[in-house]
Amino acid sequence: MSTIVLLGLLIGAALGLGRVATWMWTKHGTATRWAAMAAAGLTACGCAAAAVVGFVGVYRLDVPRRAAAPPVTLSGSPDELARGEHLAYLCARCHSASDSLPLSAGTKNFLASPERTLGDLYAPNLTPGGPLRTWSAGEIVRAIREGVDNAGRLLLTHPANDYHAMSDPDVQALVAWLRNQPSVLSETPPRSFGLLGILLVGTGQYPVEVQPPVVRAIQAPSSGRTPEGIDKLGCRGA
């Protein structure tokens, strides 16, 4: 059952229980009636609150909030591609089943644990055979540094805070290499959240690292760190 349907059922339950509580208010009766009315009213409020939080979560996940990405020019020179390949190893931990290149998709579900599963979230195939084949170079640059996809929707568990200050030459080199690495045809399940996951996103309990737009040229990371200083394990998904 889709999350939207579940949220609709919560709204329906809230309305139904609210009517029950209102009806019981008009009746004369004992303390049992008052207890039943209070239980119906509180449950209705809980269902309504959960539905509101759920729709906030859906909005945060699925509503684009960024303008079109600016164009980016890649040289594709041997030096740029060599630099990009070096940087691509930063992403291999998540975007490769073998912790190596090519970046043909991960196999870990970042929303699953021994205790519970919140939905499906896999690091996607970043080779030319994956979703990036339809993205512009500017959209890929923006995704790396700002943590939003080609439509401006947030990317979950992508550590954009680590890459926000990546220099223009480095991020362009990485994108140039992504464009030129061997094409692999592999797919991961589409991103999906169950109701609990949506509620966690709606309440801000699920980690999101979306960064502000990069509006100026960056010649060196402002923090003084280079991409080589970022632990390979820092890439946590997409």
Summarize the structure.
By secondary structure, the protein is mostly helical. It has helices at residues 3-25, 31-62, 78-88, 92-95, 137-146, 160-163, 168-180, 195-202; strands at 119-120, 192-193.
State the separation between the terminal residues, measured CA to CA: 24 Å
The major pleated sheet works out as: 2 strands, antiparallel
- Averaged pLDDT: 85
Number of strands: 2
As a percent range, the share of helical residues equals: 40-55%
Low-confidence stretches: 221-225, 231-238
Whole-number tally of structural domains: 2
Strand content: under 5%
The neighbouring-strand order within the major sheet is 1-2
The topology string of helices and strands comes to HHHHEHHHEH
Cα-based radius of gyration, to the nearest Å: 23 Å
Helix-strand makeup class: mainly alpha
Number of helices: 8
Shape: elongated
Write up this protein.
The chain has a two-stranded antiparallel ribbon with strand order 1-2. It is built from 8 helices and 2 strands, in the order ααααβαααβα. The protein is elongated. It has 2 domains: 3-62; 78-193 and 208-234. It is mostly helical and 238 residues long. Helix 1 (3-25) runs antiparallel to helix 2 (31-62), helix 2 packs across helix 8 and helix 3 crosses helix 7.
Topology at a glance:
Blueprint lengths: L2 H23 L5 H32 L15 H11 L3 H4 L23 E2 L16 H10 L13 H4 L4 H13 L11 E2 L1 H8 L36
Antiparallel strand pairs: 1-2
